[in-house]
Write a structure and sequence with these properties.
Blueprint lengths: L2 H4 L9 H4 L6 E6 L4 E7 L8 E8 L1 H22 L26
Antiparallel strand pairs: 1-2, 2-3
Length: 107
């Protein structure tokens, strides 16, 4: 028997408004005995506090499966692109476009 015969194929519908994705640079995780709650938030300059963009509620079993899938995918990513650093990024100078003259030179 072929291994593919044992696997069920899932067909997903991806609506355009969901396909755009939601940016998050912060996740807050809490749990009870029966569920994990993951709030994905964005902390952006100019906003007084992080804004929760999406909340995902999962069973502990599904959360553990997600952990395994993320671990596997991070390993593959690092094998292809190199290690992901968790060190704080180096601060780079920023500039405002208004600081430049119309020809692109610094005024």
């Amino acid at each position: 028997m072929d291994n593919n015969d044992n696997k069920k194929q899932l067909n997903f519908e991806l609506k355009p408004e969901i396909a755009q994705g939601t940016y998050s640079n912060l996740a807050i995780i809490s749990h009870s005995r029966s569920e994990f709650i993951i709030d994905f938030a964005a902390m952006l300059p100019g906003l007084p506090k992080p804004e929760v963009r999406s909340r995902i509620v999962m069973t502990p079993e599904h959360c553990k499966r997600l952990l395994g899938a993320l671990t596997d995918n991070i390993s593959r990513y690092e094998a292809q692109f190199g290690p992901i650093s968790l060190d704080a990024p180096e601060q780079k100078n920023t500039f405002n476009l208004g600081d430049f003259a119309p020809n692109g030179t610094k005024s």
